[in-house]
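RETRY 2/3 - previous attempt timed out on the joint model. Re-submitting the same 841-residue input unchanged.
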Amino acid sequence: MIAIGPTFRALLRNKVGALLLALQIALTMTVVVNAIHVISSRGDLMSRPSGLDEANQFYLTSTGYASNFNEALVVAEDLRQLRALPAVAGAIQTNATPLGSSGWSTGLSLSMDEQASGVGAAVYFVDETGLDTLGVKLIAGRNFRANEIGEREKNAIDWPSQIIVTEATAAGLFPDLSPAQVVGKSVYISSTSQTTIIGVIDRLQAPWNGWSGVERSMLIPQRTLFGSSRYFIRAQPGQLNQAMRAVQDHLDQHPQGRLIRNVRTMDETRARSYRDDQALQGVLWVTMTALVIITALGIIGMVSFNVNRRRKQIGTRRALGASRNDIIGYFMLENLLTTVVGLVLGSVSSILLNIWLVDTFNLPRIGWLYLPVAMLLLIVVGLLAVYGPARKAAAISPALATRQ
Amino acid sequence: MFSYYLRQSLISLKRNPILSLLMVMAIALGIAAAMTTITVNYLMSADPIPSKSDRLFYVQLDSWSADEPFLEPNQPPDQLTWRDATELMRAAKAERQSAMATSMMVIEPDVAQQKPFSASVRLAYSDFFPMFNVPFQYGQGWHSDADQSRQLVVVLSHDMNERLFGGENSVGQSLRMGGRLFQIVGVMQPWQPRPRFFDVTTGAFADMNDVYVPFLLKEALTLPNGGNNNCWKPLPDATFQAYLNSECISNQFWVELSDQQAVADYQRFLDNYVTEQKKLGRFPRPLNNHLSDVMSWMEKQQVVSDDAQIMMYMALMFLLVCLLNTVALLLAKFLGKTPEIALRRALGANRRQLMQQHVLETACIGIAGGVLGLVLTWLGLLGVERLYQGNLKDLTQLDLPLLGMGMLLALVAAILAGLYPTWRACAIAPAGQLKTQ
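RETRY 2/3 succeeded.
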């Protein structure tokens, strides 16, 4: 029969040793809980969809340099020919991409007043094929028409009279209205230009993944004449590589006084955009795993040593009728008691560390579920670690041990 | 005596090889985790220009909107408007000063085989080069006359000179940039301060620029904005000049001031300047102008990333666990040695001598753990660098002070871990112990 009382009293004979182990388990739990928390909150960030059909999309930058570079003409011709390539499903000129980390944003508000409440939203210039090429879904209103696409000079300050916004942008401006009700509403861009929301799309992230307003963006029906712009291209499903090769070959063969650079797939852009988060996850995984292993090895070392020290007592107990399982049970129970003390301490320090992380680094707070999961993990690890040395203890022959 | 203790220690370590190995491994892993993350933090927080970081000051003027600060709580903008940058340059009240901005230009190499490509441009004043101790391989920075007369002169980075001229002395040659011929006046040596302190607006560890040209060329050639551009006030009309006169911020400004008096004078000058501008209807916010020296600017801009700090704190806790582990194992081990200790006491060794011997034993563990730990640190840094793929460029290199620190940390940690177990084991009364045997 397993008895907590005697086991506990025996533990008290080496208070410091047990306390050290408990502290170690407490700290391990603290690190594990908070590391898993950081790993999973980064995972949440990384799993946010951009709204694009990323697997089939890429983009490049086209910069004019020749003095006779006629941007409007070259871009229109480029797009017409790129769209005709068999592997290409769509091609537009734009200024930025989700996850691309550079782009424009401007304010949208309900009145001209500079102090009027409004929201910031990312700006994407598109034409009437923008929705299809980006792969976003229109959930209310309509798309731009070909005759609504205007031109935008470099230092232009006015804005067109129709825009399409994301659902998050619509909700930011009109918290109480459904997307369908937002269609037809009049808003102001940069507090200066009045414009009408003609459509709402489900989702299109802003270029900055760390921005709190990352879900807010708007589509502007304009071709840009900035001297440099981005071609965003959607390949036929599964033909990204063919499309990339065909597009680059085509552009290389038609230099037209511009240069092509930064050819990049959306997959690569996503990886770059979240590289630091992914790396932090990796570092924390390694730290956490190594820590659990060290703690397990520590437990094995401690218990092995205790077993050796207590050979005589174990032999005596066996001689007095304790079964092998009693001995194994004893060491298991001893470790469980220490672990539980450690886990109670660990729960407190996990929460304290989390509070500090929340304060210092603006991390989200931990979910309560992490605590029982980490406890269970460490109890299992502890019991597994004890089992080996405990079996050795149980194998001690009573006759030999008592005679020494 | 020392060699005798050392021999005793090694015998004792060999007696429980697995336990000893466990302790060495624990210390090694703890040291490796701590040192890997400390290295990254240490290099991120390094002083990029130690010889004069206390004499270079970043200028901030609060030109932002009356309704809200640029950043809570009441922080002035991190850049200046074109108008203020050029006005402060015109006043020239500091020993040295340079406004800066970034842009992009297409370079058309003379060589037929090289295709045109776009280069990142830093716009600066002639003081930029002496102020930041820019090392030159050929030639030098442009003369201050070139600033005002907007001469088409250019300084190339080392890499750009390699790319364009195969590393040869290109000073005096001309280079077609943005459709105009620039004269090359200088070529830098490889120069990559980390952090890139003079402009952290696009990332403190971002790459350096390819070419450097006079600041006012932005206006003369209507060069596009590079980096960040923030506006709070709508522009009155659609011209480049309107943009330059606007409240949009995209310029940085540094001054060199040699003493406290100069700093106080310059601060007064800035406040007076803003007060004058207020009369023109600009600067709607209360006076809030800042001069920050290099290191405090790095701190304000949080050059050491949160992630790096989180990693470091986690790793330090890891080290702590490894130490607790070592303490517990040493305690178990030394308590197991009490009969031997009692015997040696009875034979005349005093407590102090026994303590010395055991401290030496733990020091051996520390040294072994430290050496192994530094090897693992090296591997750890390789791993971290691979994970970050260039985002931590030059931030994963061990130097001598770091190696020394790692060794010291291992030694101190091991000895600290051994103190209590040693004390406990040696505090035993020999008579009682011997009797029970």
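Residues 40 and 248 of chain A are 39 Å apart (CA to CA). Closing ticket.
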